[in-house]
Design goal:
The complex is a heterodimer of chains A (234) and B (259).
Chain A lengths: L1 H8 L3 H18 L1 H4 L1 H17 L3 H24 L4 H6 L1 H6 L5 H16 L1 H13 L7 H25 L7 H8 L4 H15 L5 H30 L1
Helix pairs in contact in A: 2-8, 4-5, 4-9, 5-10, 5-12, 8-10, 8-13, 9-10, 10-11, 10-12, 10-13, 12-13
Chain B lengths: L11 H13 L1 H33 L13 H28 L2 H33 L7 H22 L3 H33 L14 H33 L4 H8 L1
Helix pairs in contact in B: 2-7, 3-4, 3-6, 3-7, 4-5, 4-6, 4-7, 5-6
The chains are: A mainly alpha (234), B mainly alpha (259).
Amino acid sequence: MVRTSASARKPSPWTVFRVSVTRDLAVAWRHLHEGTHPLLFFILTVSLFPLAAGPDPVFLRQLAPGILWIAALLSTLLVLDSLFRTEYEDGTLEQILTSAHPVVLIVLAKVAAHWILSALPLVAVSVFLGMMLNLPAHAYPAMVLSLLVGTPAMSLIGAIGAGLTVGLRRRGLLLALIVMPLYVPILIFGAHAVQSSIVQANWVSPLLLLGAILVLSLTLAPFALVAALKTSLH
Amino acid sequence: MAMRKPAQPTTSRSRAWRWFHRFGSPAYFYFFAGRWAPRFGHLAVAFFLAGLYFGLVVAPPDYQMGDSYRIIFIHVPSAWMSMFIYVVMAVSAGIGLVWRIKLSHAVARSCAPVGAAFTFCALVTGALWGKPTWGTYWIWDARLTSELVLLFLYVGYMALLAALDDWKTGSRAGAVLALVGLVNIPIIHYSVEWWNTLHQGATITKLGRPSIDIRMLVPLLIMFAAVNFYFLAAMLNRVRCELLDQERRTRWVQEVVNG
């Protein structure tokens, strides 16, 4: 009797994960205007490059992978600042860290929700931005897939930086400083998958390497993130 | 049936533990470092002078690069130290994070500026060497690019430490960052190498020739010893400062400061 009621009270890890994600999505849904900021930032940054580098379509096509990837990287960085901010300020973060459920899963769920809200729209919009940058049609699968695989890895690694700096009042630039060097491999493989597909070379291998980075960060980053959050809260 | 366990014999294990505890005590280490830092410093100066003499005077000019290759006696040891110190820093920070040893954190914090200085030195000498060899100060060579990213990693670590006022929080946060960086460094290195081979052919291999002249090898090894001694001296001095700052409320620091 006691055992069944105890097991009924303790939800499965998957339920914990799902509930956390849904909760974060519901909160974001009620502040929808804030959720559009990374998207607008992404579009604006991409539009600035032709203004600075010139409108020549051939030149833009060469630059397109770099422009799209750097813009995606910057907007990911920009929104990382808000990843744990409200939770830190209202004390939810302490509740999460002391909760009886697997902390790693809850934290992973927060990053997952954050990625769905901030990066997934970018991937969708990148198709239109690719057209504006004169990206050839056969390069779209590589662009969408590389962003789809690369942005979660960036969110996971960046979340560690956000966790380390969550207690600081002015942390935006510091966060960028400590996280950007860690993004170097993702940027290299992601932009090169697109670059290779433009010249119709082998773009699958950089994509696979990007996938390897995603798997690595998916398995290791949540633990580093929990350590980072615990450090910041003590 | 309460049978008492036989008393633990004083094995080498317990002696090692006693040594470990004493060594980890800030007061003990402060005086230990005070004795050893100057010795390492003197050794570093002696080895630097010997290495420079053998490197700049005794070693013959290179058949291809003439005298300009002589910068390797600074460049290669600095580049090697830049990576070695990052590993020392991350491992020490990791030990501090897991076992909560203040001394390990102090060592990690003290490694960062020395490592960053060596990285900067490697970058500058690499650029200076590039001018006569490649015809330009900077090319996006794989090793130079990796060194640049490594410098960014050091700078990020130091910026994080500087931003967090609380010593303990800062050290622990820095430790997490250093460990994440340690996992990332090989990935960064290989990704940059992969990126570099896509863009340009193999660059000049600096020490690629298997038969390096013994008169060139000896000064290089002497310089390696010199930079290691310098690192030990500089790091131990910095650890002393960190410990004084951290233990400023304790009696032994009061005694040191007031004479």
